[in-house]
Design goal:
23% of the residues lie in helices and 31% in strands. The chain is of the alpha+beta class and 155 residues long.
Length: 155
């Protein structure tokens, strides 16, 4: 219900699944469920933040609740959710924000970031906003806990 007729007309050889305008799930929820049902091992939501805060928040919840790696990318951000240690590959100077979603972090270590991450910082409910890569690669390791990583595009 949210795709223009012009775009629909341009989609050749694409399987289009139609749903009622009156439904309980958003289009994003339906798309992610369908991708998982078809065996997806990773999901990238293009857009998903947009002008509607209600949809943006729900899309972040979809990201957090997903059982497979899921990310949201728009013109300004790449957002991912992490339940375990991970590596970031990018360019020195890239702006990153780490937003904890739980407060039981243990064994937190980071390498390659301007501002080191610590369990005391995360467990106190603070965030690491506008951190930076100081190398082309960073490693964030932790046990327990979970966080959103927001990689900010150079605006």
């Amino acid at each position: 219900d949210s795709v223009s007729k012009k775009i629909l007309k341009s989609l050749n050889d694409v399987n289009i699944i139609r749903h009622s305008h009156d439904k309980d799930d958003t289009d994003s929820e339906l798309a992610v469920k369908e991708a998982i049902n078809r065996g997806a091992t990773k999901i990238t939501v293009i857009g998903g933040i947009g002008r509607r805060l209600d949809h943006a928040l729900l899309n972040l919840k979809i990201l957090i609740d997903s059982k497979i790696p899921t990310e949201i990318i728009d013109d300004y951000n790449l957002i991912s959710y992490h339940r375990k240690s991970f590596t970031i590959e990018g360019k020195a100077g890239e702006v990153l924000s780490f937003i904890p979603q739980s407060f039981n972090f243990t064994n937190v270590e980071s390498k390659g970031l301007r501002y080191p991450l610590t369990k005391e910082w995360f467990n106190s409910g603070k965030y690491s906003v506008s951190n930076e890569l100081v190398e082309n690669k960073a490693v964030v390791s932790f046990k327990n806990g979970s966080l959103l990583l927001i990689r900010v595009s150079n605006l």
